[in-house]
Amino acid sequence: MRRFRCPSCQHEVFFPNTACLYCGSVLGFAPGGGFSLIGDDNPACANRATIDCNWIAPEPGALCLSCRHTTVVPDLTVEGNVEKWARIETAKRRLIRLLYRLELPLNDAEGNPAPVFELKGDPIDTGKPRVLTGHENGTITLNIVEADDAEREAMRSAMGEPYRTLSGHVRHEVAHHYFEALTGNDPAQREALRAVFGDDRADYGEALKAHYENGPPADWAQSFISSYATAHPYEDFAETWAHVMHVLDGLETARAFSLVGADLPEDLHDLALRPMERLAESWVALSVSLNAVNQAMGHETFYPFVLSPTVIAKMEAIRALITRNWQL
């Protein structure tokens, strides 16, 4: 994430801000630029009053680029659902900004938003099935319980995950969409990914069943970013994609705050042109430092993952896939 300044007083403002905390100017954000003063030329998103969306809409009364990608919102008559919706949308705005800056397609062939998000809460009737987070044909379903810190931590602990965040969830799920969107019309590109991640045609249901029954291989960390990535090539791709997003966004933010060397580009787009081996070198050095700082403050480890040479090669395949799209 870059650093931003108020267009009125030039004091620093931050990505979620709806107003400048110094001069009080009412602000709106555009993913192709930065903050502007809300007004006739820069109307606020129609969701601003409900969930504090701080993005600019194309016209008065319209949804912003990010909110257009949500087609189902939770039942707002249920206490707490507005707050959960707002927290998910905050994470999604960061995701959409990332996808936009990386020039990844945000519409389908007919010009409709793609991927789209359906944000749902579990039914009040506990006898009915819970909402499962997942992806199908460009639609990402997200159980809004993920926006509850206590519930998410309980799930993280129960599943033995190093960490579980909203940003990680949306970055993982959107990967399934782009696996199809970026390779669907290019058999050669699909085969190239299969050479790296394995054959995605393997039975998904059976693979997941085996994973949950038997767990990951003992040596999984040598070749996979997470134990869940071992379940199926789809999940290996999605888990690795999420970490490519973590590294790119994290390094852009660190560069903006002078936490990494000036030899790295300031802009996300330019960072993505660097080989992943070079990016990983800076990221590992940064994460080791931040892990130590977090531990000194009594917090959880900042980045509890190991980037082995095999994992870095997988990340490079995804970085190359993204930037290859710029040439088409």
UniProtKB/TrEMBL annotation:
Gene3D superfamilies found in the cross-reference section: 3.40.390.70
Bilayer-spanning residue ranges: none
Domain Zinc-ribbon: 4-31, 44-77
Pfam families assigned: Peptidase_Mx, Zn_ribbon_DZR_6
InterPro entries: UCP012641, Zinc-ribbon_6_bact
Top-rank lineage group of the source organism: Bacteria
Protein name as annotated: Zinc-binding peptidase
Organism: Pararhodobacter zhoushanensis
Lineage: Bacteria, Pseudomonadati, Pseudomonadota, Alphaproteobacteria, Rhodobacterales
